[in-house]
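Quick question: what would this complex look like in 3D?
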Amino acid sequence: MAAKGYRAAARRTLERQPEVREAVTRATLHFDQNRERAYDEVEAEAWRDWAAATKRHTLSRLDGYLLEAEAQLTARGAEVHWAEDAEDAQRILQELVERYGVRRVVKGKSMLSEELGVNEHLERLGVEVFETDLGEYIIQLAGEPPSHIVGPAIHKGLEEIRALFHEKLGTPPDAGPEVLAAAARRVLREAFLTAEMGISGANFLVAETGTLVLVENEGNIRLTTSAPRVHVALVGIEKLLPRACDLEVFLQLLARAATGQKIGTFVSLIHGPRLPEEPDGPEHLHVVFVDNGRTSVLADRTMHEALACIRCGACLNACPVYRQTGGHAYGQVYSGPIGIVLTPGLKDPRLADDLGYACSLCTACADVCPVRIPLPQQILAWRVRSAERAPAAERLAFAGYAQLMTRSRFYKLSGKLLRLAAPLTGAPWLPVLGAWAAGRGALEPSPKSFREIWEEELNGA
Amino acid sequence: MRVCFFVTCLADQFFAEAAADAVRLLRALGVEVRFPRAQTCCGQPAYNAGHWDEARKMAAHTQDVFEGCDYVVLPSGSCTTMLRAYSPRLFEGDRPRYDAALDLAERSYELVEFLVRVLNTGSVGRGLAGRRLAYHHGCHVSRELGIKEEPVRLLEAAGAEVVPWEADQECCGFGGVFSVKNAPVSLAMADRKLGTLSAVDALTSADGACLLHLAGRAKKRGLGVPVRHVASLLWEAHRGG
């Protein structure tokens, strides 16, 4: 069996799928440049300060805002459900599928639904599921999870998509992007018109008005939430915003951070199911508030700020580590810097032992996060927790290192030893040094240490 | 003006001549330089690996060694960041050590930063005329301390051309323990840096660790990229004109 974890998966990706690195680098640099330009057009620093403060305020009074949202939603005719974990959410979905006799579901892009294993669960129930975001549709055809929060298929080049569509949808082997998009559209139009249920996520949920807010560029979410007779929205409990006017900044900041747009092409503000006098919209709206580990993150004094995340993907785009492999190597729903911070908190702290090192601590992510999550500090905090569980050899090595470095006589001696032993450091079997030398050659210390030069030449000069 | 020179363990062993050049340059500019012999390592390797008990021991040792120095100057952006931004976080529960960390932070400067911001040096000399250089911005010094323009300005003032480089502010992939724990990714990052580099007379930086990693990678791949620490180039600029 193949070795598990980020470390092994990253190595495999680089060795066996070099085209992923190329596609992901190209896409993320493009996103990141657009974000930078879009930030420069406005007073982004002030917006980020304000957004960060608003999210932190909301999280500090989350219970109150959730109850307020529930009351508003219920008053407008929506049914509100509470799911503690994935199993709970699946049970709620199953109940709704049975209640409405659902055979076909269309879905808008939702990372939370990935967390909850919605597609697999519905398929087990015999329900046909269509991802309707083009990127999501591509990876559904390929049988893969999303590799990026905003661009789920950015790891795939045009050639790969062409081959996939040729095999699954019968498009010509040399079809251009327009032909491929038209083929997907044909399948998805049919699905929109025949599905009994649409499932979406939520970008924001306004407590004051009970407004469900969805942002997209393709129009598929608007169809998902309005064409079928039942709409189910899966909402992480951290998605709350206090007031409708908070959207003024958040809608713009989300779009600028994610893709460099001024605002998403489609913004849907949903207030409830169709009213008697309205011509369209779903007959039933169900909002499922999901915890799935979020309250544990909220209770963590160091990590709670990660719940401010608005899933823009800017930290992934800025991350030079993410760029080398894309998101699949992380082996989790959330990848990149935010994935490293959130995943161990949502699932299991021990995941940080491996994921905590999917980071060079370059701090580029902190520079771009629209809600100023201190990602590098949090990643380091996970490493501090992991260090307690580190292998004995690592703990001994650092203890010895500290002993050496607090005794200058030993330190000087070790410098001499380094010079004597340097030619041997290229041996690939050596622990640590072997891993260094394999890609970079043996260590080449200066012929004389600075200390020696100081004593011989500089001291008293 | 008197400064204590903190050579840093990595420069002591791997960039000894560049560190000596830093001392020569400071002295040529009229600065009195001392070298406290008990100095070792700032503790950053342990800090970044999450072994904070060990990092605290080294950081405390460093505080004691440099107590009473007016200025502490380091030929390393990353180690300077350890003293300035990270070390205080180690002592959040220990008031005297926390205060000492803040005190040391206030007195510590990366070499180029010291030349530009404390000595107000606009030019160290013209000895790099006609040289084509690429400047790698170390992550910590550029993002945490905001030192981006200073080194480029000094090199240009010396007559060098600092070439545009699309990846100049991207992480080189060193990252301390990251470089061995996730070596393939670390190397892929170095390859991205080296792959976007145009032909230059030297690749330079204020961070020896990044240069060690990039130089090793370039050599392993048979790329002829000469690597010079910025301290050596600035000393050359001074001597040559």
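Answer marked as accepted. The CA atoms of residues 232 and 373 of chain A lie 30 Å apart.
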